[in-house]
Amino acid sequence: MPTSTDAAGAARVAPWKILALWTVPAILSATETVIFSGRSGHPIAVWRAFVGEAPQWYGWAILTPPIVTLAARYPLLRPVRAAAIGVHAVASILAGLALAVADALVNAWVRPSPAPFASDVRDWFIGGLPATTFVYFAIVVATYAWRNTAELRRREREALVLETQLREAQLDALRMQLQPHFLFNSLNAIMALVRDHDTGRAIHALSLLSDVLRATVNAGDAHETTLAAEVDFVTRYLRIEQVRFNERLQVRIDVADDLRDAKVPVFILQPFVENSLKHGVLQGRGANEIAISSHADATMLTLEVRDDGRGLSHAGTNGAGVGISNARRRLERMYGPEAALDVANAASAPGVVVRIRIPLNRSA
Description:
Blueprint: H1 4-11, H2 15-39, H3 46-73, H4 82-110, H5 117-195, H6 199-219, E1 224-226, H7 227-245, E2 249-254, E3 263-265, H8 270-280, E4 288-296, E5 300-307, H9 322-335, E6 340-345, E7 352-359
Parallel strand pairs: 2-4
Antiparallel strand pairs: 1-3, 4-5, 5-7, 6-7
Helix pairs in contact: 1-3, 2-3, 3-4, 3-5, 4-5, 5-6, 5-7, 5-9, 6-7
């Protein structure tokens, strides 16, 4: 239901806009008077026609703000109250009377008449009553339409802001799930080296971990980075694991130079590399490989993480784990239905292939 606050908002419409609105019918009405006066053999000067017709229209310009205020304070909306109907009925009559007085005063100067002034006011009032009543309630209806449109736009803006804030909060939550998990796994790898009294490799791993943590901190609140930065981050992470597992872990990176400036979600590759290590490559005792590659067409970028480990135990799961589910939700929130994430066993060799498809956008 309209409130006084709404009325205040409507009353803040710039006066020049209201004046400009009512100038249009004033000009049209004056033009009509000039044309018909000339055809009837009683030509009238344009300025006199305009001055004679302008009072009623500019009178409406003066009356519009208080009518808007009354429309908000006494709404003619369901359930309609009798008091509101009475207020607007009286207000429309008073508006018509005020306009009749203005018309009579101006026309007494522009087009003098021998009739008494009171008679002129009566004639203007009675003759114009249907039109003034119609215009009054047209202003009331227009006020509700204008306010409803403004309210709809305000709610759309608020909904957009809330949606953006929710998406940011959800992405932040997903990143907070990722970063501690990554840190704990890296520290566990270093602790294993310490337990084995392999001080040199432990120090090297700590140096690599420092680089990785620095990259994590420098990412700040950003949700996207370049493919080059993401690959560099994952490469350092894998080097930490290579310090621990030596020749058992081989890494192959195949990223085209012309795609290194492509935008990708921050830390998007790391959970899949970690899954390859945890569930595939390092489950056996022999050497295994993790390969990271990329390719693109005109609009889409595809990233792949491939391992040659033991593969998924259930070929049709398409990655049902928590980390993969989080990544899938993150891609959906960032890119909508255009993004895709598929996890499946390799078609012609052992292992798992992760394919990430996102819109191709390049860093400025």
